[in-house]
Amino acid sequence: KAVVDRVIRVDHAGEYGANRIYAGQMAVLGRSSAGPVIQQMWNQEKDHLKKFNELMVAYRVRPTVLLPFWNVAGFVLGAGTALLGKKGAMACTVAVEESISDHYNSQIRTLMEEDPEKYKELLQIIKQFRDDEREHHDIGLEHGAEAAPAYSILKTAIQLGCKAAIFLSERI
Hints:
Number of domains: 1
Pathway: Cofactor biosynthesis; ubiquinone biosynthesis
Radius of gyration: 15 Å
GO molecular function, one term: metal ion binding
Protein name: Ubiquinone biosynthesis protein COQ7
Oligomer: single chain
Number of helices: 6
Number of strands: 0
Structural class: mainly alpha
Largest sheet: none
InterPro entries: Ferritin-like_SF, Ubq_synth_Coq7
Strand content: under 5%
Keywords: Iron, Membrane, Metal-binding, Monooxygenase, Oxidoreductase, Ubiquinone, Ubiquinone biosynthesis
CATH architecture: Up-down Bundle
CATH topology: Ferritin
Distance between the termini: 16 Å
């Protein structure tokens, strides 16, 4: 139960944060040529969040107490990187989605070690969402992420933030 609680809590927080990042990007770039691409990725993230909202209820898992912070931090990150332009927003997408897909891979390994049959449904969901995040990562690269100003610094900083958010959201 403790493993599942942590998995669902942190994944819910991550999908919530991703929704806020895309909301921030759309607030800045929604009417630009990047708008439809960002909206498409955001729509998938909305589906992910909806599913984790359902899993929170089904497994009786409490959300992280940090949701109000992720609400603001996610929007600020999305809007802030979008202010750098389309490439800045895409650099943010690459950084976040790479972190999240790596995190999902780690969870898949953990659940497979625990009891793959018991966690079959959860494993299917996480694998599908991981694949969606990898697709978003690739879309970001296709749309010029690596040409963003100070790309490697920006990517590293965002990924450090993601690691901290994952660590905290699993526990608090």
